[in-house]
Write a structure and sequence with these properties.
Layout (H helix, E strand, L loop, with lengths): L8 E4 L5 E6 L5 E8 L13 H8 L10 H9 L4 E6 L4 E8 L3 H14 L4 H19 L2 H14 L12 H6 L2 H11 L5 E7 L3 H11 L22 E5 L5 E9 L7 H12 L5 H8 L4 E10 L4 E9 L4 H18 L3 H18 L3 H15 L5 H9 L3 H11 L6 E6 L4 H5 L3
Parallel strand pairs: 2-6, 7-11
Antiparallel strand pairs: 1-2, 3-5, 3-6, 4-5, 8-10, 8-11, 9-10
Helix pairs in contact: 9-12, 9-15, 10-11, 11-15, 12-14
């Protein structure tokens, strides 16, 4: 069995900032990742997009590195990689460098996250960049379809909104908005520094203590609990395209639910790889799609399971029915022990491959520490996967795949919503 000994270590500094580390043998690199509980779920309507916009602003200069050029040159000069991302429940910032340059990574990240100035002239310049990013997503249905589907699942509330925000907020946000949001959420008790690679725990803690000196203040508020809001059954976005894009699925379990890993395995069985049911049954056997995959959305109090596909404009009805058929075949006919074993091996194997990257490993440790209050070892996660039985899969499919819960998002040159409603 593919098990790892739990090696991660954790130290909480006096300020409340948590440091989690794992030393990876056989690598000469280190990733320093900072996760902060400041994703788009924390926004209200008048702030939509501020979490993501703030991510951009951190790269615009602070005290030691005064502009984007100095930030970039500091990392480029040591051959490092750096990036950031904004999710719905947290935002992340990382630098990956040779282990000999780990102090540079800590210096740059700490300066940008603690000392950023949020200059109005930089905000005004970056508005254009983010509006172009907004336009890019609108012109990329493979991205947009996922956000449309989540709007169906979660409705008109923060978890149902996309992270990019609205043009109105992007165009009007000011220095004071960023400073206030940063003050309330970028606090030491709401952040985790995960350092993974060729470094000892004690050395990592010393660097974080030296560079991430944060005032002892507390997170001002939590995101609101999910409300029961009906987002509808169909989201049809009429758009001239050469390929139709569909998302077909159901509400699912939260990441804290006892059947979280069962749901993950169901997604693998249905559409997780090139030998999955969706790929063989919809793409290969019927030639109805180019890309097709089933994934899960996993949040602290909600989730979903969804199959996305790019399909022939003229055969979209057949493709939608083909996807739905695979859901109900698994629910009604079940699966063999061999199919479950294959899915487990695939999920664990992908985890192992992903964790050869120190950035992926740091993300895993940091996410569990930030959201769950306790980092998880790879061994613990794999044991949870191994415990899943055929009966668990069948029970969860019967619970989730209920006709009245089925949701469908479509992007393509169609104007008749009723046409698609008749398919469900």
């Amino acid at each position: 069995m593919l098990y790892f000994r739990p090696m991660f270590r954790k130290t909480t500094l006096q300020s409340g900032l948590r440091v989690v580390t794992e030393k990876l043998p056989g690598t000469q690199s280190v990733t320093v990742l900072v996760l902060v509980g400041a994703g788009s779920r924390y926004e209200i309507e008048a702030q939509r997009g501020i979490s993501h916009f703030l991510e951009h602003m951190f790269f615009k200069g602070a005290q030691r590195y005064k502009n984007t050029k100095e930030v970039s040159e500091a990392i480029d000069s040591v051959g490092g990689e750096f990036n950031a991302f904004t999710g719905k429940e947290y935002a992340g910032y990382y630098v990956k460098v040779a282990s000999s340059s780990v102090e540079v990574a800590c210096d740059v990240l700490s300066d940008m996250l603690i000392n950023s100035a949020f200059k109005q002239e930089e905000i005004d310049k970056e508005k254009g960049v983010i509006l172009e990013e907004y336009n890019m997503y609108q012109d990329t249905p493979m991205y947009q379809i996922g956000w449309n589907f989540e709007r169906l699942i979660f409705g008109d509330q923060p978890l149902g909104w996309d992270q990019i925000g609205t043009k109105e907020v992007i165009s009007s946000v000011k220095h004071e908005d960023f400073a206030d949001y940063w003050e309330k959420l970028y606090t030491p008790d709401n952040a985790v520094v995960a350092i993974v690679g060729n470094i000892e725990h004690e050395d990592a803690v010393s660097l974080v203590t030296k560079y991430f000196e944060m005032a002892e203040r507390s997170k001002a508020f939590e995101f609101k609990a999910l409300e029961e809001k009906d987002g509808g059954q169909i989201f049809l976005q009429e758009k001239k395209t050469e390929q139709a894009h569909i998302a077909v699925g159901f509400p699912g379990y939260s990441e804290t639910h006892k059947d979280h890993w069962v749901k993950k395995l169901v997604a693998v069985i249905l559409g997780g790889n090139m030998s999955s049911r969706m790929f063989l049954g919809v793409r290969e056997a019927k030639g109805l799609s180019y890309y097709i995959h089933t994934t899960t959305d996993n949040y602290m109090d909600a989730g979903a399971i969804v199959t996305n596909a790019g399909v022939d404009l003229k055969r979209i009805d057949e493709a939608i029915l083909g996807v739905i058929e695979q859901y109900y075949l698994l629910r009604d006919k079940g699966l063999s022990e061999a199919e479950l074993v294959k899915a487990k091996s695939y999920l664990k194997g992908k985890m192992v491959l992903g964790l050869e990257d120190s950035e992926e490993f740091a993300h895993l440790l940091g996410k569990y520490e930030l959201l769950h209050g306790q980092a998880q070892s790879v061994a613990e996660l794999m044991k949870k996967i191994d415990k899943v039985t055929v009966k668990d899969i069948e029970r969860v499919c019967k619970d989730l795949f209920v006709e009245v819960k089925l949701k469908l998002a479509v992007i393509g040159p169609y104007g008749d919503e009723e046409r698609f409603r008749k398919l469900l």
